[in-house]
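Listing S7. Sequence submitted for prediction.
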Amino acid sequence: MKAKFLVPLALFLVLAGFLGYGLTLNPREVPSPLVDKPAPEFRLATLAAPETEVGLADMRGQVWLLNVWASWCVSCRQEHPVLMRFARDNVVPLVGLNYKDTRPEALGWLREHGDPYTLSVVDADGRVGIDFGVYGVPETFLIDRAGVVRYKHIGPVTPEAVRDVLLPKIAELSRAS
């Protein structure tokens, strides 16, 4: 009779242990299967000039950041001043991937809040975002000269993330040939 109660109790304790461990993890540290792999190929119209297309191949040979953003994204408003400061320092090109947005709303948002991007491309249907494994906006990818994703930041970029993670990784990648 006692054995009947021990099995469910043991299962409950094991599940409670897994749940307890899961609650200690940082949801922003979801590993990306793209890190240290080639970035997905893309060719998209630019936000400013829809007749002009830009793709991954155009960025090869330089270290750069791809920031996934949208005018409807509340968290993008939070990170925007950080991106504006980053852009003023002109460390590396900052490319915006305008995700599941409309051109007029995106252009209006940048006019109102400022445009930190070297250029923005339009991913209206979200297919490129899916290829990059975007969970939600904002997300930021650090891509090296060979087009390999070296880091993925989930959520709004903070001044601490720029100082402690992005700038050291950018410096390291810029030194490498």
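Caption to Listing S7: primary sequence and predicted structure tokens for the chain studied. The radius of gyration is 20 Å. The first helix runs from residue 2 to 23.
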